[in-house]
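## tool: complex_structure
## caller: assistant
## args:
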Amino acid sequence: MSVQKAPDLKNPLPRGPLPVFPPERMAKTIEITLDGRKVTVAEGTTLLEAARSAGIDTPTLCFLETLTPVNVCRICVVEVEGSRALVPACSRKAEAGMAVRTDSERVRLSRRLVLELLASSVDVSTAPQIQEYMRRYGAKPERFGAAGHAETVAQPVKIDNELYVRDYAKCILCYKCVEACGVDAQNTFAIAVAGRGFGARISTEYNVPLPDSACVYCGNCIGVCPTGALMFRSEHGMRKAGDWDETRQTRTDTICPYCGVGCTLTVHTQDEKIVKVTSPLEQPITRGNLCIKGRFGWEWINQK
Amino acid sequence: MDLHFTNAAATPEEKAAIDAVVERNGGEAPRRSLLLAVLHAIQNRAGWISPGALNYACGLLGVPPAEGFGVADFYALFSTREQAPAVAHICDDVACRARGAEKLCVEMEKEHGPAGTNCDGKMWRRSPCLGMCERAPAAFVTVAGPQATEQALGAAHAADIEAALQGKRFPAGGAGASAPQWGQKAEQGRLKLLRRVGQTNPDSIEAFRDAGGFAALERALALGPAAVLAEVIESKLAGRGGAAFPTGLKWKSAREGAAPRYLVCNADESEPGTFKDRVLMEGDPFALVEAMIIAGFAAGCERGYIYLRGEYPEARRQLERAIRECSKHGFLGGNILGKSLRFEIEVCIGAGAYICGEETALLNSIEGRRGEPRNKPPFPTQAGLFGRPTVINNVETLLNIPHIVLEGGKAFAGTGTERSTGTKLFCLSGHVARPGVYEAPFGITLRELLEMAGGIGGTGKLQAVLVGGAAGAFLAPGELDTPLTFEGLRGAGAALGSAVVIPLDDSVDLRDVLLGIGGFFRDESCGQCVPCRVGTVRQEEILRRLAAGKPMGSVASELAVLKEVGQVMRDASICGLGQTASSAVESALSKFAIFKGRT
Ligand SMILES: Cc1cc2nc3c(=O)[nH]c(=O)nc-3n(C[C@H](O)[C@H](O)[C@H](O)COP(=O)(O)O)c2cc1C
Ligand code: SF4
Ligand code: SF4
Ligand code: SF4
Ligand code: FES
Ligand code: FES
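## result:
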């Protein structure tokens, strides 16, 4: 194993500026029309933020406040007057005079189809958010046919380390884990997108097991994964055994005891046992990120 | 942050190949943007991208190996699995299919087994359009090793392909190798873009100069950048790469941004049925260099890139020689023609990805990243290559520039129609008597163009014409009087695109053609966004079921779902690939009774 110096990373993926959290507001405001209503927002506001501030719930899958928008899932699309195609609300900035429709026939059709395309190719059984959207938009993925008709990304679960599993049959390719492992948080670059088209997938180099990769088990990718494709081994095991029951779980915020940074931990317990650890996104310093000790260091407590 | 590598080590040969690329590029500060060139060097030397070679390359260029793998795995001409060192890529796209590609594939299978299998160090595979449709069927043969070869073969026979696989080198333009073709000689006097192609020796800078070369550059330097820009705006030149954006406005917008700025020539030419840019680059390479210097001068770009598709080895040789010659003669470098003008050109070779013709995917590819389109806005003129203001223009677009400089924008705009100015190159292939590149003033109708090319070939009975390539649309025999202008085709519910015109006779099974187009988009989607990544797969599945006469539910219900998939691809995809992936299919279904009665 060899270690080499990395390049300077001042030139990250060209996906626009990192979002500032909480959004930094400039004084100047502009007026746009949202579903017929005049709304005043700060310049630089995205259509998603504008919609949210107007109380319009816009679905998102690949967007997260703490990550650079990749605008790939297209569930958040809205109709902007004068634009031929729909635009992604999560990354499109409001411009003075823009007329936006967030719930037109076209918008609803695209959102429903995106959900149907996803759910017909990916196992969404541990993705409650997607299931909720599917109910909202009346998505019927079975229109594309059952197994044998519609190609899927089904594949065996990857269990190659003690701490977490990767079940890419559940991966919607939202790029969040890659971003969390890369410049947006961890700067480890253990995983990236490989292949292309329907064969595109999250992978280490040559698909080597995680222990052979650069992974340091910070679990930040697990923290951002919206589908359960990345899952604590504890949770995966309990689900398999039929023991996972969120109604019996409690969440307690505490400060990580391991070092002086003082990250906030949200400890999830079920029947007095710790089952996983997350960290709140709103925490201004750590933004939901932890290291291996905070994320997984509780394993020994359970074993006492 | 430190990079982490597995234990896999490069062979001395692989290392030498990688080092050579780094050295050729100045050695000192290896940069990520060398990744594509380095991957080509590895592939050419070893026949695949091995873990050891990738580790070594990533270490040198400072690229995390997982990302390096993601890049290598993106391109069709790179293999991340060990494979036969000699590979024949056989085109089975629309035009070649109409002229014997399937027969050739059968012969390949007989000789070398199923596609993709290593048979004594040789293998064959199917390929999308290789840009040699006028000499169908086409093949591209690569042999890795110390004496690596890359050859494009037109009118390919199994025997020639076999010889190429065994390392035989065909002379450029010689037996089986691809040579440029163009319109009738009688047209010579009226030709602008093609006037030197096939007439002037492309190897010689003197010949180029004797044939009027560099006159435009001299005039441009005398006029000054603002005046050149004004002429280009007045010419109403619109981009020839597909999107028809006004070139002058693009330059103006980039110029308004802060230096350094870049000029990128889009020579990826991968739209099925397109080969005009290849003919220009092979036949008149100095003209492109001259046009780029003028464009760089007017738009304020200090550095130019030519992004050339990997399947054009002859164009590459011609361009690299032309650039060397121009540097030697003071047309490129720090002090052009004694003026304090600096301009340099770098050639960047693609690796088998249609999507890299999309301008922002192309920028990512040059930067050593996966060829995934970027979100727009910001537009490349605002934040393009390496985040700098960038002008991206198609080869043919640029080759209009010297003419505009010499005759003036107003005179240029006098040719063609009000909204489509100048002359246009059309790529005729498929069932036409004389396939080739034809130049005609805008305004010519489809009927006139087909007549110019000798009329319908094959059975002589026209069934349909594919205009604009896979991303285009079908026109019916009753629509031959459509003018081939931007506005005329838009009026017919089609688009000029890259000016592909493929007539198909009545022996062609259109279901087959649609299946091919469906498969093309599925294979070429970058995979970034859901509507296109999954939508192209579902589109192909539905077409496959319909073609087999085994619809799920009824034909009508399948067509209804297909329509919705088409709409979400058009409405919600990130880039033009997904947005046009259903257009040919939809036009065919609306004009021809393709799946009628196939319950
Ligand atoms: C999928 C896709 C492929 C494209 N391929 C090419 C190409 O091979 N060559 C090209 O010049 N433009 C291509 N384009 C268009 C470019 O994005 C861009 O509009 C063009 O290079 C701009 O140059 P122009 O204004 O001179 O036409 C492609 C666009 C898409 C969406
Ligand atoms: S656990 Fe941390 S280092 Fe490992 S892949 Fe996930 S984000 Fe990257
Ligand atoms: S593993 Fe999870 S976070 Fe990563 S791309 Fe897939 S769904 Fe997104
Ligand atoms: S439309 Fe297709 S090719 Fe374009 S970004 Fe989306 S997945 Fe990639
Ligand atoms: S949330 Fe906007 S594209 Fe995914
Ligand atoms: S080279 Fe075969 S279709 Fe173009």
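## assistant note: Residues 1-21 of chain A have pLDDT under 50 and may be disordered. The longest strand of chain A covers residues 249-255. Handing back to user.
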